[in-house]
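Students often ask what a holo structure prediction actually looks like on paper. The answer is less mysterious than it sounds. You provide the chain, you provide the ligand, and the output is a string of discrete structure tokens encoding the 3D arrangement of the protein together with magnesium ion.
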Amino acid sequence: MKPLIELKNVKKIYRMGNIDVKALNGVNLKINRNELISIIGPSGSGKSTLLDVMCCLNRPTEGKVFIEGRDTSKMNDDELAYIRGRKIGFVFQTFNLIQRLTALENVMLPMWFVGKPEKERRRRAMKVLNEVGLKNRANHKPSEMSGGERQRVAIARALVNDPPIIVGDEPTGNLDSKSGMEILKIFEKLHKQGRTVIIVTHDIKIANKTKRKIHIRDGKIEKEVIK
Ligand SMILES: Nc1ncnc2c1ncn2[C@@H]1O[C@H](COP(=O)(O)OP(=O)(O)OP(=O)(O)O)[C@@H](O)[C@H]1O
Ligand SMILES: [Mg+2]
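The corresponding structure tokens follow.
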């Protein structure tokens, strides 16, 4: 079977005035279905850039990204939007919830974009909120929840269209270590359910829980460790 995600000699260069910032400098990587992977490395090493490029949030300057064997450079905006909307669920360090919406409404939102009817959106959003242990916080706004709870809402939102891939960019970065470990447990559960889970982290304790660790330095894969 073809890898789920494959990067071939990917480079990302940001041009700042007349200085080139080489955020990714020749990355080759294959990710298979149902892997649990961490990407770890110092600040500025290119982790977020790598995640964005592999998830089609950003295009590489050079090299190619394949999703299920398909060359993403040949996809049009609709096809890329389909991948971002249906294949991948995103979780960010700062949760990125909409402050004036309740937990339930935040989780319902991605289904609105794919045209699900209101009743179905409500039912499904409650189901995923329940899966992350937040049934009794459905009507709370983000400001009325703890950091760990907010991140669980963000995970519920990422899950609601049932994507096969879940990615987190420093999903535990703003949490204390106990809440961080709870979030990691949810990611582990999603992996056990058959999803592919990719977590960018600074935290070696989080990274050590994953089977495959990819170390990034200066825009390159420095080494990989497989348990
Ligand atoms: N939009 C941008 N324009 C210009 N330079 C950028 C841009 N985004 C990132 N960079 C630069 O690219 C390099 C890699 O950035 P990236 O955000 O991928 O690092 P990171 O490993 O995620 O760091 P952190 O751990 O601090 O989040 C850095 O030197 C950064 O300054
Ligand atoms: Mg980053």
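The pocket of magnesium ion (ligand 2) is lined by residues 47-48, 169 (CB under 6 Å).
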